[in-house]
Design brief:
With 521 residues, the chain is α+β, with helices and mostly antiparallel strands. It has twelve helices and five strands. A five-stranded antiparallel beta sheet has the order 3-2-1-4-5, with no helix packed on it.
Length: 521
């Protein structure tokens, strides 16, 4: 049999362990370049199974090989691939040459769910962190510290809620409807159809008056026109044709124009449109939260009109009624608007503590300043009702209710600031949360105090104008009863407002620092 062509033989490639074994009688072959498919086939053959140099590729009868030329034992089979783990980006890439028929072994963890090898694009799309597969707002189970904090909050709030319910039952107005103030006449709606200058008295043309022709819209004679003569004075309002006014009918002869008197304007339609505009603005900005706020506002009016005012008129202590009513409003409004959570409960605790401080300070300084609360309006109210109303208690009740509206704004804002800081940096401790939130609270309290002072100043502006032109010294004006009442009201409310910031911030920092951390943090 002729020897095989030399071009089909190639020298054995060296291996990692050294040169390939060659038969002793084999002659060295000249190295010739191998190209094309032969090179690919030769590279694909494992070194252990490649034929020795000079050997023929034709099949030959089996012969016993020398011991030193016997093929090595076959390598043990590869173990089962381990469970997939994330690929190590620092692992070296495969050094297999292009064109080889053998594929490089996949890196550990590069197999997909079905055992197929993942492509690089699939590995890039796969989340690198477990938290990326879900949302980062999930929380780990609450630890013992968080549970203890919630137990403490419940231990403080539950007795307050029970005390509020007991006070509501005890102070609820009983004994029939409260006394009503008898009005001097019956209101009648009318419209101005003409307005001209007129004489105040027949035959006297020196004194100018205003003659109004009004058409009654209801009352004893709807549709009837009558003339009203009004003196022109600085306090006389200006009327124009088309104005909606209110007449007061004394109950005498309905045909006598003297039985009627123009007392006021009709303000119902503008107020209704303003309320609709307010509700629309709240709903557009707040959406469902705004709807909850409107419902809470309605509940506030219900508490004031059905409990606070009738209970005070029936003779109960105004300060106690104001405290119970404020607590009831606070529980209903805050939980209805912001939901039942540890954050809302912290704001409720801060508001309760600040209200208690305002009540104590108001009672102490109202007694020290000898404030009686008997201004002109209160004296007229007590005389008209004929009921034993405590004037000083009514003054203190005004302190508490007036400060509640600003307090819940500050406490809710501070609590939300602490929780947002905690979400931004879960590693902050309670001290770190308190320090960071107090920087926000200082800016907030400065503007809130100014708002409270200006609100009280605006309410008592006519009184301030009277004393500003009285010619008395500033020290004397400030110590007058009515002015001193407004000063004590403003300062007591401001102190409670300032104290609510560190109280609420400290409580919120303690609670938030023990809340479970987000899983993605």
């Amino acid at each position: 049999m002729p020897p095989p062509d030399d071009r089909r033989r190639r020298p054995a490639a060296p291996t990692a362990s050294g040169p390939r074994h060659r038969a002793p009688d084999a002659e060295p072959e000249p190295e010739t370049p191998v190209i094309g498919l032969q090179a690919v086939a030769s590279r694909a053959v494992p070194p252990d199974l490649a034929p020795a140099a000079g050997a023929s590729r034709d099949p030959a009868p089996p012969t016993a090989a020398p011991a030193d030329l016997a093929p090595p034992d076959p390598a043990p089979p590869d173990p089962a691939p381990p469970d997939p783990v994330p690929a190590d980006p620092a692992a070296p890439r495969s050094t297999a040459r292009r064109g080889s028929r053998t594929r490089p072994a996949p890196a550990r963890g590069a197999r997909g769910r079905d055992g197929d090898i993942e492509t690089r694009a699939e590995r890039d799309r796969r989340p690198r962190h477990p938290a990326a597969a879900g949302h980062g707002h999930s929380h780990t189970p609450a630890g013992p510290s968080a549970r203890r904090v919630r137990v403490v909050i419940a231990a403080l709030l539950v007795p307050c809620a029970l005390a509020t319910l007991v006070g509501l039952v005890v102070l609820w107005p009983r004994g029939g409807p409260p006394p009503t103030v008898q009005q001097p006449g019956t209101p009648v709606d009318a419209q101005v159809v003409a307005a001209q200058r007129a004489d105040c008295s027949p035959g006297d043309g020196t004194n100018a008056c205003l003659g109004l022709t009004v058409r009654m819209e209801d009352g004893p004679q709807p549709g009837r026109d009558l003339v009203q003569i009004l003196p022109v004075e600085p306090s006389t309002p200006r009327f124009a044709v088309g104005d909606e006014v209110v007449l007061q009918w004394s109950g005498a002869d309905p045909l006598d124009p003297g039985s009627y008197q123009v007392v006021d304007f009709q303000r119902g339609p503008p107020l209704i449109w303003l309320a609709v505009l307010f509700a629309a603005a709240v709903l557009v900005l707040g959406r469902w939260r705004g709807l909850a706020a409107l419902v809470a506002l309605g509940m506030t009016f219900v508490v004031l009109l059905m409990f606070v005012l009738p209970s005070i008129v029936s003779g109960h202590d105004p300060l106690a009624v104001a405290i119970v009513g404020s607590c009831l409003v606070m529980f209903v409004v805050l939980y209805l608007t912001h939901g039942l959570s540890a954050r809302t409960s912290t704001a409720v605790l801060g508001t309760l503590a600040s209200l208690a401080l305002i009540g104590v300070l108001g009672a102490v300084f109202a007694g020290a300043a000898r404030l009686t609360g008997l201004d002109d309006q209160t004296a007229n109210l007590i005389a008209t009702l004929g009921a034993p109303v405590d004037a000083r208690g009514l003054l203190l009740a005004g302190f508490v209710i007036g400060a509640l509206g600003v307090l819940d704004d500050v406490t809710v804002t501070q609590t939300s600031a602490v929780w947002e800081l905690r979400a931004a940096d879960p590693d902050l401790t309670a001290a770190g949360l308190f320090t960071a939130a107090m920087r926000i609270g200082r800016d907030h309290v400065s503007s809130a105090v100014n708002t409270l002072v200006l609100a009280y100043a605006g309410a008592s502006l006519p009184l301030m104008l009277i004393f500003s032109v009285s010619g008395d010294g500033l020290g004397h004006v400030l110590t007058i009863g009515d002015v001193s009442t407004e000063i004590v009201r403003t300062l007591v409310g401001s102190i409670g407002l300032v104290a609510s910031v560190p109280i609420t911030t400290g409580l919120a920092a303690l609670v938030a620092s023990r809340e479970p951390r987000p899983t993605g943090a």
